[in-house]
Specification:
Elements lengths: L29 H27 L11 E3 L7 H11 L3 E3 L5 H13 L6 H8 L5 E3 L6 H28 L3
Parallel strand pairs: 1-2
Antiparallel strand pairs: 2-3
């Protein structure tokens, strides 16, 4: 499932993109669709992370950070976190902060009005350390690596269709 309910952000920045279900058959049940949505979210995070890592330059000998910090409401879904760690091929440290964007905005605001000398100092004072860790599931990594390669092609394969659908509008 391509989870483009309101366009797609990084790395495509395409407001015309819309959600797509690919590979659905009569053998699938609602639980499969649920998992496919979670996998699509994880694939999108992986593609965006890879784009950032490429732009920033290789950070370690292996070319990617050894771990990542996950924050926000999605961290409350244990299945999403296991899928995410497996797709990203690295463990996740999970922040207890559900409203991470709001906290980041508060850190920047506190710095801007002079409560802290810098955003880094505000973050150091206001950030909560991770409260749990999620390991990747080794048995899922090869399957997700193969599926991610296919998923990566879906945006380009559907881009023109999204534009055309936008042009004809809703019925």
């Amino acid at each position: 499932v391509m989870p483009y309910w309101a366009g797609v952000m990084s790395p495509y920045w395409d407001g015309a993109a819309r959600g797509v279900i690919v590979g659905l058959s009569l053998d699938h049940e609602p639980k499969h669709l649920f998992r496919a949505v979670l996998e699509g979210i994880a694939f999108e995070q992986a593609i965006a992370s890879e784009a950032m890592e490429t732009k920033a330059g290789k950070t370690q000998a292996g070319g990617k950070p050894a771990a990542m910090i996950a924050a926000g409401g999605g961290t409350n879904c244990a299945l999403l976190m296991r899928i995410m760690a497996s797709v990203l091929e690295r463990p996740l440290s999970v922040s207890p902060v559900n409203e991470a964007a709001a906290l980041g905005a508060a850190m920047l605001a506190a710095s801007a009005i002079g409560w802290f000398a810098s955003p880094d100092m505000a973050a150091e004072a206001m950030a909560a350390p991770p409260t749990r860790h999620v390991d990747l599931v080794d048995g899922l990594v090869p399957a997700y690596r193969a599926r991610k390669a296919i998923y990566r092609d879906l945006y380009q394969a559907t881009r023109d269709t999204h534009v055309r659908l936008g042009e004809v509008g809703q019925v």
